[in-house]
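Here is one record:
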Amino acid sequence: MGSRKCGSCLSSLLIPLALWSIIVNILLYFPNGQASYASSNKLTNYVWYFEGICFSGIMTLLSMIFSALGIAFSGYCLVISALGLLQGPYCRTLDGWEYAFEGTAGRFLTDSREWIQCLEPAHVVEWNIILFSILIALSGLQVVVCLIRVAIQLSKTLCGTYSVIIQPGII
């Protein structure tokens, strides 16, 4: 039980510590509240390593950030693939090259008799349906996995469910 409380304290401190590291590193660029030292390159060399901003700050938060980006980017793939599926392929019809099914709101997907409108490339309707459907499924799974990761990471950080294992005899 003691290790769980210790883990709770440590995990709940992670975000504020990262944010304070960023703030403190930024303040190093303004000795005595003045910007002139930074603009004239009169600061200690180690200020320019961005250690508080990048490594103690941002890198600490990256796991959640990348999971959130995973949601956004996978969601983008899902939406664009769904739109591509509903629009149908660009193909050569009797009227020339066009989106033959653009105005059908996806009704062509369930009526394979309409697919013969696309003369070229061969089997382009099936090709698009299969591949866009696979992209929708894959990106949908990615969204779900990333959502779960964010939820777990947030609960561990905010609710303090990170556990710290203390082995006997090791100090």
